[in-house]
Structure formats: structure tokens, C-alpha cells
Write a structure and sequence with these properties.
It is built from 18 helices and 19 strands. With about 650 residues, it is of the alpha/beta class.
């Protein structure tokens, strides 16, 4: 029995909404050059396959390098003409305007074909991506040679069309001549309301006073608003007009014949055109990702399936955009944070003051994981590691379900229950203010039970809380670690730095002192604190040990990362030298085997020629290039092409 491949479930829509991922997609869409690229950006979804994610990130990295080399794709003319191409393929006649729209995209394929030829050799991913693009510019030239930019079918499009239009031009000249002849008649001019002809539709008419209608035989086409003037097409002109109607019908038939012929040409290339549109729309998306990356100083993440998360100097992308477009009055900048999971611990319990940026830590982590899984670079330092998650599940913010009349606490519990039913070992769970909204003792007990369940599920989780009892959870669980959001007691403001291995201190007494609380009150508070010190002394010593261990672990990870980077650089350089050595060996073999008649390229002229003579002693070759023969050293001889 063959196994059925099950499609992975979509990423949790509620989490995407909480993390405001739509805003990231909209930011990305702003960098796209075409409507097709913008649509792809707005519909971006996390990819479930690690190889696909890595391939996409590599493509974005290459495009970023191409932009740095001044090799931006020549966007312009990309339209979604797939439906028009399909209609043409089944024999439908396209209008002149539709054909011009198709011609723009056909010409664009030619520009992209030539762009691929110009790309730097090391940009192999981009070159491969564009490999299937055909130069369909010849069909575009055929269309533009028959239709002008206003959508008018040109005389040169068909010999028969040119002949019909010449007959029409001759007939129009006859009509004008007859009009001039009539207007030159002084008797006729006496009965006209004014001494010139006008055009009504395709007919030349004379403005005749209504009292003299019987004096001008012909067809009445309209009457003036006052009723005093009628507009008559004289009988001599009406006969010519009838002939003109027949010629216009012939012209229309010839125009349609041209449009059908051009539509058939489009139909012949419908498949490669539709393929090209899809490939080039994807290239527009990749270019948008690269431009976004360069604009916000992003780096490609290392994607893994082992659950290792390490965000180095990570910045919240939407906060950074906000601070750029609407700078805060105090000149604040987005504070980078370092976040780790899966390196010795799977659960991170973050504590600290309510204004300390705990929620920003959650949102930054979730957003960057989503961005990486969508094949984007992330606003974090080089070498950041992101796992491929099956689910990213979050409960962030103070939400209430008004429809169900639920309290804040009930709303959070309902959401957490849904998260626990869905989460597994391939999930990232983000919970904000665990245990809040109820009695602190019961909240802490419930919080510990939820942490235990997350631990049992084996997922990666970051949980924020202000409950002191949850600070000790990590001391009794080797798979959990504390984190604290730093607070500056001098400025009474958070620094937003995340300190892993520490738990958040309230700093209440220091803050109270700076806020001028009466000394007597502060002294009593210190006495009460000293009574509890005995109970917390052991905890403080344990915390110091954890902090030292965490610093050592962080240093070891950084050293291991640097070592891995140096090894990669060494291996890349070695591979490059090996390739150069192999190429040099092949070139030496080519030069040693040269014989008369061989076609070679001479670097001095950058042209190909035929070998006439080979002098092994002098290490020279006589080559016929153009109309002359030249003796050049072996060093200037290369294979053709």
C-alpha cells in the first residue's frame, strides 16, 4: 500500500494576525515592480519544505549581490497576459489594445533573456531560474510593426489593407472636392445659414435654412436646436458616401484579418509566454525581497530542522519601519535583542517590568521566524539560526471575545487551550503575561502547569510573565531558562535588551527612591525586604551560578559559530583554488594539443580565429584572425566561446 503524501496544515491565521504579518507583506509589496509581483508579495505564505526555504533564501541572497553589482533586472512591461495568450491559443481574435499589452510582455522576455546573459557567472541560482525564458521579442516586433502605440492598425500590416485605405483616401478627396464645388456656387451660399460644411458622423453636411429645404436635394441628418437650420448631405455627396461605407466595411474586414493573424502568432507562443510570465513574476518577488533586505540591512538566516533558534542582534521589522517613517521625539532606535532556544533549553521564561519590552521580544521572534520561513532575509545579524516550524502559535495582548462575553482571563485560557491541542515538537509557542488576570497564587500554579505541558510536548516556547513565583521554574527544569528585560533605574525606562540566564528584578525600591517616596516608607520597605532575604539568599546564589553558566555558553556558541564560518570560508577558497587549478590544467592541455585548423580565441583581439602554425619551441601560435595572420604566445590562446 503506497503512502499518501499529506499536505501540511497552514500556519495559524490568528498568530499571523497578532504578529501583524500582513504589514510585513505590504511593506514587501512596496518594493515590487509589477502588479504580479505585488500580488505574490501580499499572498506570501510560510513554506513547509526546508530545502525550498533554503533555495529561496539563496536566490534572494544572489539577487542582493546582483543589485550590489549594478545588475538589477530591467523591469518594465511585465503584464499578466496569460489569459489573453490562452484565448489566442484557442483561436480567439484579440483586440489591438490587447495585442499591444501582449507585445509589451513579449518584448520584456527578450530583455530578460539578454539580462540572463549579462549576469555574473557566480550567480548560478538566478541564471538557472531564468534558464527557461525564451526570447519572444520577434513576435513583439511583428505586432508593433502592424499596430502603433494608439492601437491603430497600420497600412503596412497588409497589402490589401493599404490598397483599401488608398481607395478611401481617393474617395475622401473626391468628397472634399465636391463640397468645395458646391460651396463655390453663389446661389447655394445664399440659402446656407453659414458658408461652410460640417461633419456629422462620417458625412459632410451643409447648414441649409429650413425655408429653402427643397432647393438642396439630399439626405437630412439632423436639425438645429432652434429648428431654423437643417443639415443636409447633398445627393452628389451621398452617392460617394454609400461607396465609402462599402470601402469602410472592406477596411474593417482587412483589419480583423490582420488582428487574427497577429493573434495566431501569439497563440503559437502561448505556452512559453505563460511560463515566462510566471518565472518573471517570481523574479519580481525575489527582487523585492532583495531590495527590502538591502534597505533594512538584513541578512540570510541559517535554516535548520533541529529546532535550533538563535537570533543575533534581532530587530523588530515593523518597529524599525515605524521609527524611520515617524521618528520618535526622543530619537530612540530599535534595540537589537539576542534570543536563543534549542541550545540547551527549549523553554524561555522572560520576566521584567510591564513596560520592559517583553511583548516586543515575543513579536520580534515570531515575525522573524515567519519571514525566514517565507524565504526572506531577516533583520538580524549574520549567522542567525531559524528552525523550520510546523506551527507558530501565540497568545499576545489583552484580547476579549465580546461575542462570547468572556473576561480577559477566560479569553486567554481559551486561546491557550487551543494552542496546547495543536502544539507539537515542531512548534513555536509564544505566550504573553502567563498567569495574568487572576489571583497571583492560582495564576502562578496554572502557569507552572502550562509550562510543564509545553515541556512535555517538546515544543520551543517563549513565555513572558510578571509573576515572581514563575521566576524559579527554570531552576527546577534543565530544559528551561530564565530571561530578563533590562531596565535602566537611572532613566526609569526600559533598555529593551534581553538578558538570557537572568530573571527580571522589579527594582521597585530604587524606582521609588528616585520618585521621591518618603524616606520613612522606604526604610520600612527595606526592613520587610531584609526579613525575606534569608529565604531568597539561596535563590540569589543559584541565579549567579546560572548567569555565569549562561555567559560561558554564549561565549562557546559565538566561538563555535566563528569557527564554523572560518571553516566555510576556507572550504570555499579551497574549492575555488581547485577549480582554478583544474581550469589551468585543461587550458595547458588545450595549448599543448594545438594543431593547424583548430578554432581558438585570441585574448589580445578578443576574437576567434583558426590556427595556421604551432611553434612548440618558441611557445607561439600563428592564428588567422580576420584578413590577417598573427603570431601570438601560448598565453594568449583560449578555447572559443
Amino acid at each position: 500500500m503506497t503512502a499518501v503524501e499529506v499536505e501540511p496544515p497552514p500556519m495559524d491565521a490568528h498568530t499571523l494576525e497578532l504578529l501583524q504579518f500582513d504589514k510585513v507583506r505590504e511593506l514587501l509589496a512596496g518594493y515590487a515592480a509589477s502588479a504580479l509581483g505585488r500580488d505574490l508579495a501580499r499572498g506570501l505564505e510560510p513554506l513547509p519544505d526546508p530545502d525550498a526555504v533554503r533555495a529561496e533564501i539563496r536566490l534572494v541572497t544572489e539577487m542582493s549581490a546582483a543589485l550590489g553589482l549594478g545588475q538589477a533586472p530591467p523591469f518594465g512591461g511585465l503584464n499578466d497576459v496569460r489569459l489573453l495568450a490562452r484565448r489566442a491559443a484557442i483561436g480567439t481574435m484579440l483586440t489591438a489594445e490587447q495585442l499591444l499589452e501582449v507585445a509589451d510582455t513579449l518584448a520584456y522576455t527578450g530583455a530578460m533573456y539578454r539580462y540572463r546573459m549579462r549576469l555574473a557567472e557566480h550567480l548560478t541560482g538566478l541564471i538557472d531560474h531564468l534558464a527557461g525564458i525564451e526570447d519572444l521579442g520577434l513576435v513583439a516586433k511583428t505586432i508593433s510593426g502592424c499596430i502603433d502605440t494608439r492601437g491603430h492598425v497600420l497600412d503596412m500590416a497588409s497589402r490589401d489593407l493599404a490598397a483599401v485605405r488608398q481607395l478611401l483616401a481617393d474617395l475622401d478627396e473626391k468628397v472634399k472636392h465636391e463640397v468645395r464645388r458646391l460651396l463655390a456656387n453663389p446661389e447655394l451660399r445664399k440659402i446656407l445659414s453659414y458658408p461652410n460644411a460640417t461633419i456629422h458622423g462620417d458625412h459632410y453636411v451643409l447648414p441649409v435654412s429650413v425655408n429653402h429645404r427643397h432647393k438642396v436635394p439630399g439626405v437630412v441628418h439632423r436639425v438645429s436646436g432652434t429648428g431654423e437650420t437643417i443639415f443636409v448631405e447633398p445627393a452628389s455627396i451621398a452617392n460617394l458616401s454609400a461607396e465609402r461605407v462599402a470601402l469602410k466595411a472592406d477596411e474593417d474586414r482587412e483589419v480583423k484579418r490582420v488582428l487574427r493573424r497577429l493573434s495566431a502568432e501569439v497563440g503559437k507562443v502561448a505556452k512559453p509566454l505563460a511560463y515566462s510570465v510566471e518565472v518573471l513574476a517570481k523574479l519580481d518577488l525575489v527582487t523585492a525581497k532583495a531590495r527590502y533586505s538591502r534597505d533594512f540591512n538584513m541578512d540570510p538566516p541559517d535554516v535548520n530542522v533541529e529546532g535550533r533558534l538563535w537570533l543575533r542582534q534581532a530587530r523588530h521589522p515593523l518597529l524599525e519601519h515605524l521609527f524611520r517613517t515617524d521618528p520618535p521625539a526622543d530619537s530612540r532606535k530599535v534595540m537589537p535583542i539576542d534570543v536563543r532556544l534549542g541550545h540547551g533549553f527549549n523553554l524561555l521564561v522572560v520576566t521584567g517590568p510591564n513596560t520592559g519590552g517583553k511583548t516586543v521580544t515575543l513579536k520580534t521572534t515570531g515575525l522573524l521566524c515567519l519571514m525566514a520561513q517565507c524565504g526572506l532575509h531577516i533583520p538580524a545579524g549574520e549567522g542567525s539560526q531559524v528552525p523550520l516550524f510546523r506551527h507558530i502559535l501565540s497568545d499576545i495582548g489583552d484580547e476579549q471575545s465580546l461575542e462570547q462575553s468572556l473576561s480577559t482571563f477566560s479569553s486567554h485560557v481559551t486561546r491557550i487551550a487551543a494552542i496546547l491541542r495543536t502544539a507539537d515538537a515542531d512548534s513555536l509557542v509564544l505566550l504573553d503575561e502567563l498567569g495574568a488576570g487572576t489571583d497571583p497564587t492560582e495564576g502562578a500554579a496554572l502557569g507552572r502547569a502550562i509550562l510543564d505541558e509545553l515541556d512535555r510536548l517538546g515544543c520551543r516556547a517563549i513565555v513572558t510573565t510578571h509573576l515572581g513565583d514563575l521566576k524559579t521554574y527554570a531552576f527546577n527544569n534543565d530544559r528551561a531558562e530564565n530571561g530578563a528585560v533590562e531596565f535602566d533605574t537611572e532613566t526609569l525606562r526600559p533598555t529593551y535588551r534581553l538578558l538570557i540566564g537572568q530573571y527580571g528584578m522589579s527594582n521597585a525600591l530604587k524606582i521609588a527612591r528616585r520618585l521621591k517616596l518618603p524616606k520613612a516608607v522606604l526604610q520600612k520597605a527595606h526592613k520587610y525586604l531584609k526579613r525575606r532575604k534569608g529565604k531568597t539568599g539561596e535563590l540569589a546564589r543559584l541565579q549567579e551560578l546560572r548567569e555565569e553558566a549562561e555567559k560561558a555558553k554564549e561565549a562557546a556558541l559565538a566561538a563555535a559559530h566563528e569557527s564554523a564560518r572560518e571553516k566555510e570560508a576556507f572550504e570555499r577558497r579551497k574549492a575555488e583554488l581547485d577549480r582554478e587549478a583544474e581550469a589551468a590544467g585543461q587550458l595547458q592541455q588545450l595549448r599543448a594539443a594545438l594543431k593547424p585548423g583548430d578554432v581558438v580565441r585570441v585574448s589580445r583581439f578578443d576574437k576567434t580565429g583558426k590556427v595556421v602554425r604551432v611553434d612548440g619551441k618558441k611557445q607561439t601560435v600563428t592564428v588567422g584572425v580576420g584578413i590577417g595572420q598573427w603570431e601570438v604566445p601560448f598565453d594568449e590562446i583560449f578555447p572559443p566561446g
